[in-house]
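Our platform keeps sequence and structure together, in a single record for each protein. Nothing more is needed to write down the fold, since each code stands for a local backbone conformation. An entry from our holdings is shown next, in its original layout:
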Amino acid sequence: MYELNQKFKELPSLIYSLRKNSDLIKIFNSSPDETTYYHSWFLRMNMPLSIKVIEPVLINVADHITRLPLDSTCFDLAPADSFLILDTGFTLTLYYKCHNQNKLDLHPSDNDFMIENKESKLPWNIIEQYISERQIVPKIVITQTNHSQARFLVSRLNPTTSDSTKENQPHLDNNKAGFWSFWTSNNRKSSKLIPEDLSLKRYYDDLIEQVQKFKI
């Protein structure tokens, strides 16, 4: 029976997160200056912060603070009218899970005024704690349900085994379907997340299978 040394128990998860990290590895559409900034600071960070850059931490701030899984199930686990905070080391994304009647008055992209004016609805105790302990001042992104900046959270979520994949998408007959037919209700994916990668569980399952088959 193969057993992983306890000192390396987090290594597979870190490798999984690193290979899909948009700050360090998957830098497509990033400017050279931005990439240089992330890489140079990453090399100078202490261990806890560098691990957070590799594997972001997602928490829910409601009556108490709860750590959530970094996948699409987080939206179901967080109660309504509460904040999900994604800490990637370089960025704090404050995602307000809300109903239409309780939405924050947000601009589509620039909400720095809420930080400058210390908007009372924001979880300032968490924000100030993160900023005070950080080697660098993180960028703060404020977003909410169905808001354009929600991509800062959604893009960092890992796929789950229940998320749609290319293999189970409905087949379209190109001779009968028009270009825009992909966006009809029958053909769109129903999951919250469109995965580009394996789920963490599938990654571990495949890794264990390869280890078991390995022969010295």
Remarks:
- The first helix runs from residue 11 to 18.
- The helical segments are 11-18, 32-44, 47-54, 74-77, 112-116, 124-132, 151-154, 200-213.
- Residues 19 and 25 are 6 Å apart (CA to CA).
- The first strand starts at residue 57 and ends at 61.
